[in-house]
Amino acid sequence: MANSIWTIEEFTCAGCSMSYTATREEHAEAHSGSFKCRICSGVVHSWSGKHHFFGWKAVTTKPPVFGRRWADAGY
Fold first, then answer.
1. Less Cβ crowding at N or C end of the chain, within 10 Å?
2. Cα angle vertex 37, ends 8, 47, to 5°?
3. In what order do the strands lie in the sheet with 43-58?
4. pTM value?
């Protein structure tokens, strides 16, 4: 049975530099696994021990808003 220690960690794919986050959960018993990149299929992270990673999500950012400065300046 898992205890209540969860942390969110960030990982970057060595193959294509795609960033991901995952939740790390501590367990009383050993677990192992790995996560592969959705873009290039490279291994982003593998683990073995008394923790498990789940809830993998690609890190997304908002694109910059172009032209806003000129619209605010009245040009």
1. N
2. 55
3. 6-12, 19-36, 43-58
4. 0.72
Q: Is residue 21 part of a domain?
A: yes
Task: Report the first-to-last Cα separation within the chain, whole angstroms.
Answer: 63
Mapped to the 3 state alphabet, what secondary structure does the chain carry?
CCCCCEEEEEEECCCCCCEEEEEEEEEEEEEEEEEECCCCCCEEEEEEEEEEEEEEEECCCCCCCCCHHHHHHCC
25 part of a folded domain = yes
- List the domain range (segments joined by +) for residue 61: 6-65
Q: What is the pLDDT of residues 5-15, one digit of tens each?
A: 899 999 999 99
